[in-house]
Every structure is written in structure tokens, then in C-alpha cells.
Amino acid sequence: MPSAKHPAFAKPDTTSSALHVLDQKSCEGWLAKAPAETAIWAHANGFNGAIGQVLTLPDKDGQPRQALVGYGTEKDRARRRFVLAGALSKLPKGTYHLVEGIAQEDRPAECLGWLLAQYRFDRYKSGRDAETHLIAPEGVDSARLEALAAGEFLTRDLINTPAADMGPAELQEAAQTLADQHGASINVIADQDLLAQNFPMIHTVGRASDRRPRLLEMRWGSTGPKLTLVGKGVCFDTGGLNLKPGSSMGLMKKDMGGAANVLGLAHMIMALQLPVALRVLIPAVENSVSANAFRPGDVLTARNGLTVEINNTDAEGRLVLADALAYAAEETPDLLISMATLTGAARVAVGPDLAPFYTDVDADADAINAAAAKVADPVWRMPFHAPYEAMIEPQIADLDNAPSGGFAGSITAALFLRRFAGEHRYMHFDIYGWTPSAAPARPKGGALQGARAVFEALPQMLKL
């Protein structure tokens, strides 16, 4: 079977077992029409179609040639994602084909969940690839789902890799590998060249580390609407001189989750040949502590000339994104999207599962919301609340990177970033990038958030 690093459906001609998905409303009627021995076996095992139930039906030789999967009620399914994927760990290993029970419009998301459940992070600990596979049902675009799953696998791998093995140079290598795979180009501006080419805040945030800061720029496609993706690539965040406590530093390998998400999204776009002129910008740095670390109270000048007072060196992500967004805006993109593990305030507001996003364009918000529901990638629109602009304006500079008071932390960060996106059509995602507790198709660890929704919505937003 295919490696977990290359998620794929089983070949249609593979020997397979039948999979019957039954909800609680239809289960008893189905059993009434089934062979007597099937109904007796189901009743003896208490199978009634409840969500999460799995029952194997052996043939006369004792082989598991059929299985029943409980699909619960509509209310049950509304409370969880990827119901079908939840059956994988309870099914005997082998290959299955779906016979019935999942509506045509729900099949792509459920089949995607099956692929996502194949993921294994085995860089440091050996383990077996998934041994339970699915033949893509008729009418499901298997190539599309495989590309979406591969993009998510890339994102998960990048976030899960510890910072010792995923610094700015390694993130550059990952971007180069992706570019080579799809025939894209990569340009890298590093270290002192950042100052020479006017990326002062990227350099300032990364200069305290001996792992030199850099800006990665990937380009693919020369025709169609201009789409620019900007991802926060803080490969580890100590907090700088405003040092984080140990309890807050433990997950900081995921602070490059924005970069990982835009690279996963870029893979989807390139693999499925969306007709866009794609540009990906990733400021890749490590926020460290040394004698030349930037300080609270410093005033920095960004690429676009705005000055920023530093009131907390742990609010560094918006600084590196500011230079990258200003650079992105210089080419007048048709759509500019940033993704970042930017604020703890977003997690307090909506928890780890939802990806908060900001846009001033109602039609774009509607497109993202509809797409998110379709591809099981939940999001939540947040406001660019103009009255809070005053909160990011200190006395001695144009902007404050960490307004005091702690109110509306995600909103003020988004407003800060918007100052650098120019007058362009701009959307920002303040993601968490991590699954804290394992769930069907979502193992604990690095997570893609918002990217599938964006991919699904792009044809409508860009009129492709």
C-alpha cells in the first residue's frame, strides 16, 4: 500500500471488504432486510447505528468481508468531524469499499478524513504505516483529495519537527524541495542582505540567533489572478528579552505554523494546477536571547517607513510579517493572505479547533465560511474593529507592537498587520497550528487550519 507520506486511495481492482455505513434512523430497517444471521449477529453485539460503533461481519470462512459502521444521528455528526475516519482503528486491517450510507455531498469530506487518518510522524520513532485503506467511491475526485491530504501531511511534518531540526535554514530547504517538486522558483534574502534590501524588522527579530534570519520568496505560475501568501516562520520563539516561562515555551517549535500552513496550501494550489500567479513569502527567523537582541522600548522602522515601538519582544511575529506584507503589497496582488500562530488571545476566544480570520470583504468571508463547512475545516470570522486602531498607536511612534491592557489581543494584532498590507484585498488567519488532543483524522500535534477552506474558496474569490 502507499506510504503514509503519500496519502492515496487503494486501487479500484484491489480485493476489498464491503463497508455499510448506517445511521440510527435507518439501521433497524436495514437489518430487517439483511440475512437473518447478520441481524442476529448485530443484535447480539448491540449494534444500532450509534456513532462510533463498528461491527465486523465474518463470512462462512470467518473472514471479515463486510463491516457495519455507525453514523449516529444528524445532531451527533454536527458535533464531530470525520466520522468515517473514527472507524479506522476498530476495523480489521485491509482494504474497504463503501457500499452505502453516506450522502454524495458528504463523501468528499469523509473520504478526506480517511486519508488524513493515514498520517504518521515517524522521523524519530519507527512505526508502521496505516494498514486500513479505502477505495475511492464513485463520484469522488480522488486526485483532488490526495493533493489536499498531501498538503496537510507536509504542514504536519514541518510543525512536528523540533526546532533543532527545523530552523530557518531547514525551513528554506523544505520550501526549496516543494518548489523543485512543482517547478517553482525560490529566492532567498538572508542575514545582512536583509538590511541592504530593506527588511529591517525581519533582521532585527532574528539577529540574536546564530541561525541567520532570511526571507523566502517562492513564485509559481505567470498567468491568472495574482495570489500572495505570507506565512509567519518563527522557527522557535523564546520570547526574546521578554523571556517566556518554561510552560509557555514548550510548544514554540510550532511558531512557524503559519509558514507550514501556507506551504501546505501552496502544494494544493500547484499540485491541482489552479490558474493563478502564486507568490509565497516566508520570513524565517528564530527569536533568541543574546547581547544584540532587540529590547523593550526600542523603536524600529519597517520596510514601508512606519515606526514601531517595542513594548514586548515576545510580540515578534507581527514584526517579521510587517516587512513581508509591505513587500507583498508592492506588487499589487489581487488577493493577499497571511497565516500566523500570532496570538494566545485567539485561542482564548475560540479554542484550538477554530481558525479565526479577518477580512473587510463580506463576499470573501461568505466564501470562506461556505467552503470551511464543505471541507470540514472550521473557521470563525473576527472583526477589523476600527475603533481599536487607537490601541495600537503609542505616543512616540506610529505603532505599538504590544498594546497594554490585554484587551482584544487578536484584533489589535490583525489591525497592526493591516497597516502593512496597503489598500489591497487582504485576509489574515490567526491560527493555532496544533491539535492538543487526538481526534479522528487529527492526531495530536501539528495541524493545518484554514488552508483547505481557502483552497476551496479560491475559485469563487478569484473568479477562476
From TrEMBL:
GO molecular function annotation: aminopeptidase activity
Source taxon at top rank: Bacteria
InterPro entries: Leucine_aapep/pepB, Macro_dom-like, Peptidase_M17_C, Peptidase_M17_N_1
Domain Cytosol aminopeptidase: residue ranges: 312-319
Keywords recorded for this protein, A-Z: Aminopeptidase, Hydrolase, Manganese, Protease
Keyword Zinc: no
Keyword Cell cycle: no
Record-stated family: Belongs to the peptidase M17 family.
Protein name per UniProt: Cytosol aminopeptidase
Organism: Phaeobacter piscinae
